[in-house]
């Protein structure tokens, strides 16, 4: 183990704040002793803060319309090859009832940035889902007005997920034409002020990304003091401008996840579907590197394959029973247990 790596790892183990150079050093862990040391420490920090429970967040992807034209996403508005859909409210509620029957503590209402839905309509969706079961409800519908966020919160939404995607403002605007990182961060601050448990996160392996950018991603998540951070690999979609790019590296993704766990000890970190898409054991590997959440897809089977932010998404060809069964099995296979309750943030102000 290199001396500078050992020092950075020891700093992380002692609870000392990791600075940017420490983070860059740890992100460059070499296979073997260095990676094993990093992953082992991240797993220890996860266990100390969250125990052995893996919390399930059931996602309902209720619309694949999007006003944005992001270079990396298959839902981009310029993609004419995708079949668009909006799930009727009755089917959304049926999926929520299914989740309630399985004991899920969280429902995630996710969609592209679909202007069809007003703030009032989104609020009504949240209200109706909250009536189905004792859920925490996470909303993930992108950038909206402050008034819309207020309506959603007043309707009972507990959490909001708005990934910052990349902390490189130039890369952000290049890959997301017509949008800026500054506007994204402004909304994340609004959500914090409104009392949401806030989720953000980034992709690993975006074209033009550097290890320094990834360090900045982790530091931005710390600055935002997020309750959840979704960190997963970039997977190219052939119907996008960067479709011929290489996918993100799973090893680097796991290192970013592990370092994030050291910097954000009390933040929920999912083992992402994208990791499971890149490698059949990707989610299990992530759970061994600091992750403590999995987000199974509970969308009705007829819509699943149409929510193609990237191709061949893990679970997109399964029904909800298959997805749930596989995920609970993989959790038990690695000696962990399925979490009970809502799985709120362990930060004092969000304790159940």
Number of self-contained structural domains: 1
Q: Taking all residues together, what is the mean pLDDT?
A: 94
The CATH topology is: TIM Barrel
The quaternary state of the protein chains shown equals: single chain
Helical proportion, percent range: 40-55%
Text of the CATH class: Alpha Beta
Secondary-structure element order, as H and E?
Answer: HHHEHEHEHEHHEHEHHHEHHE
| CATH-assigned homologous superfamily | Aldolase class I
Describe the global form: globular
- Structural class category: alpha/beta
Radius of gyration: 19 Å
CATH architecture: Alpha-Beta Barrel
Strand content: 5-15%
Number of helices: 14
Profile the largest sheet. 8 strands, parallel
Tally of DSSP β-strands = 8
Alpha-carbon distance between the termini? 42 Å
Low-confidence stretches: none
Structural notes for this entry:
With 352 residues, the chain is of the alpha/beta class. The protein has a single domain, classed as TIM Barrel, CATH 3.20.20. 43% of the residues lie in helices and 12% in strands. It is built from 14 helices and 8 strands. Strands 1, 2, 3, 4, 5, 6, 7 and 8 form an 8-stranded parallel beta sheet that branches. Helix 3 (33-50) packs across helix 10. The radius of gyration is 19 Å and the shape is globular. [4Fe-4S] cluster binds at residues 66, 70, 73. Residues 52-274 form the Radical SAM core domain. It comes from Desulforamulus aquiferis. Keywords: 4Fe-4S, Iron, Iron-sulfur, Metal-binding, S-adenosyl-L-methionine. Its cofactor is [4Fe-4S] cluster; [2Fe-2S] cluster.
């Amino acid at each position: 183990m290199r001396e500078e790596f050992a020092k950075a790892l020891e700093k992380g183990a002692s609870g000392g704040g990791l600075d940017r150079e420490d983070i860059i050093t740890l992100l460059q862990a070499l296979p073997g002793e260095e990676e094993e040391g990093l992953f082992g420490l991240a797993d220890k920090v996860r266990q100390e803060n969250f125990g052995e429970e893996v919390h399930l967040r059931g996602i309902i992807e209720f619309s694949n319309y999007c006003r944005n034209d992001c270079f990396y996403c298959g839902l981009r508005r310029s993609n004419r090859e995708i079949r668009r859909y909006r799930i009727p409210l009755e089917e959304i509620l049926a999926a929520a009832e299914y989740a309630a029957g399985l004991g899920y503590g969280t429902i995630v209402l996710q969609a592209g940035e679909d202007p069809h839905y007003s703030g009032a309509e989104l609020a009504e969706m949240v209200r109706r889902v909250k009536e189905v079961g004792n859920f925490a409800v996470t909303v993930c519908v992108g950038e909206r007005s402050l008034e819309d966020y207020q309506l959603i919160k007043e309707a009972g939404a507990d959490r909001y997920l708005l990934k910052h995607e990349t902390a490189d403002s130039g890369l952000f605007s290049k890959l997301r034409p017509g949008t800026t990182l500054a506007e994204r961060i402004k909304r994340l601050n609004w959500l914090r002020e409104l009392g949401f448990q806030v989720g953000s996160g980034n992709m690993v392996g975006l074209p033009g990304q550097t290890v320094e950018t990834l360090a900045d991603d982790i530091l931005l998540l710390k600055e935002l003091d997020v309750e959840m951070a979704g960190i997963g690999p970039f997977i190219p979609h052939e119907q996008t401008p960067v479709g011929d790019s290489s996918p993100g590296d799973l090893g680097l993704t796991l290192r970013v996840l592990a370092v994030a766990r050291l910097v954000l000890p009390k933040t929920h970190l999912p083992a992402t579907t994208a990791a499971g898409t890149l490698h059949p054991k990707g989610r299990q590997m992530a759970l061994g590197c600091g992750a403590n959440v999995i987000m199974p897809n509970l969308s009705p089977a007829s819509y699943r394959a149409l929510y193609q932010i990237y191709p061949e998404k893990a679970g997109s060809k399964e029904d909800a029973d298959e997805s749930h069964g596989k995920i609970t099995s993989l959790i038990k296979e690695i000696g962990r247990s399925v979490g009970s309750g809502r799985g709120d943030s362990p930060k004092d102000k969000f304790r159940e």
